[in-house]
Amino acid sequence: PDLLRRLVGSTNAALAAQQAVSKAQSPVAAAPGAGPNAWALLSAREVQVARAVSAGRSNKEVADKMFISERTVKAHLGAIFEKLGVRDRLQLVLRLAASPEPASAPAAEPKP
After folding, report:
1. What pLDDT sits at residue 49?
2. How far apart are CA 112 and CA 95, in angstroms?
3. Per-domain residue ranges for the chain?
4. Neighbours of 83 (CB within 10 A)
5. Residue 107 burial by CB count (10 A; 0-12/13-18/19+): exposed, middle or buried?
6. Which of these, 37, 49, 55, 79, is most buried using a 10 Å CB contact count?
7. pTM of the model
8. What percent of the chain has pLDDT over 90?
């Protein structure tokens, strides 16, 4: 689990850096074959969970940061996986990286 968390976090960071370079070179280019914007399919709370998980956080870390139970995190992840048609965290990172995040997306860190 620790190795997968580190892989997910590293993949997310590498893809974010690659997207930043791509946007600087061609700001209007969209990812080919990306399909509908993945972020638009998610609720505000699911976006928060997806961001945290994509950053490599464990379910427990996400639960503690968002003041919810681990079971709720798992429920959100199940809904996210189903909506986006992915099977695991690594596929989630790759799917989200292929979709530009909306400018008015909710904040990643909830306030208590």
Report:
1. 97
2. 29
3. 2-28+36-97
4. 14
5. exposed
6. 49
7. 0.67
8. 45
Range 37-40, long-range pairs (CB < 8 A, 24+ positions)? 37/99, 37/100, 37/102, 38/84, 38/95, 38/96, 38/98, 38/99, 39/96, 39/99, 39/100, 39/101, 39/102, 39/105, 40/99, 40/102
Q: Which of 110, 100, 88, 77 is nearest to 26 (CA)?
A: 100
Topology, domain 2-28+36-97: Arc Repressor Mutant, subunit A (1.10.10)
pLDDT, tens digit (0-9, with 9 covering 90-100), for 16-56: 777 666 666 655 444 444 467 899 999 999 999 999 998 88
State the residue for tokens 């790759």: 94
Whole-angstrom distance, CA of residue 22 vs CA of residue 27? 7
Q: What is the mean pLDDT of residues 95-107?
A: 71
- Return the percentage of the chain with pLDDT > 70, whole number: 74
